[in-house]
Design goal:
Helices cover 22% and strands 30% of the residues. It has 222 residues and is α+β, with helices and mostly antiparallel strands.
Length: 222
């Protein structure tokens, strides 16, 4: 079952053709199965991760270097099916995360980011397990200029008013997940996605995520 689902998702990643809803015999019934599928997809595609991406709503997946782009990019809306935009942070590790560590690592810099999710499922993910299997809905991550500073306390998708967010809690979750996975080296990234304040991608136009004191990241969807 896991191999069949992973094969379909890997083909969708390569071809752009979405995956039809799963039949009852292929349905993913737990997070462990979903994570196995995601790992199999990465193996089949031979895509080496550069870090971990974690969202407020509980999705965890690998971050891929080919999915990171500089602010100001133009993207077709069609490459982000069932997509959502959300403020995010990309933190570059200044020291390694080790399996036996206890303290939070030092960070080389923080980048303001705009997370643009996507789905390889034809009708969108039916549940959390399908979203997790599809590399946690990874689409594109647009990043602004990095700074050496502490984690900001508020963000917004323009033109909405900035809202306070708990970076510390999501950061701790990401670090613990990295430890359980065996650690991450210096230079790897943790991506924190604040998707509770996100919005669906339905129409073309500019979209910007802003972080108080850190700056922003913008993409133009067409």
């Amino acid at each position: 079952m896991i191999g069949s689902v992973a094969s379909a998702l890997a083909e969708a990643w390569e071809s752009g053709q979405p995956v039809a809803p799963l039949t009852a015999d292929l349905a993913l019934a737990c997070l462990e199965a979903a994570e196995q599928v995601a790992g199999d997809v990465l193996e089949r595609l031979a895509l080496p991760p550069c870090g971990i991406r974690v969202s407020e709503t509980g999705l965890v997946g690998a971050m891929l270097p080919g999915r990171i782009m500089a602010t100001g990019q133009t993207l077709p809306l069609s490459v982000l099916p069932h997509g959502h935009a959300a403020p995010a942070l990309l933190a570059v590790l200044g020291e390694a995360i080790t399996p036996d560590g206890t303290a939070l690592p030092a960070f080389e810099r923080l980048h303001p980011a705009l997370d643009l999710s996507a789905s390889r499922w034809r009708d969108g993910p039916a549940n959390l397990f399908e979203a997790a299997a599809d590399l946690a809905g990874l689409g594109q991550l647009v990043i602004g200029k990095g700074k050496r500073m502490g984690f900001p306390s508020s963000c917004a998708l323009a033109p909405q008013r900035a809202l306070r967010v708990d970076c510390a809690a999501l950061l701790e979750t990401a670090v613990n997940i990295a430890r359980e996975a065996g650690g991450l080296p210096v230079g790897a990234v943790l991506v924190l996605v604040f998707d509770r304040s996100g919005q669906a991608l339905r129409v073309p136009g500019p979209i910007t995520a802003r972080w108080t004191g850190l700056g922003g990241a913008t993409a133009e969807l067409r």
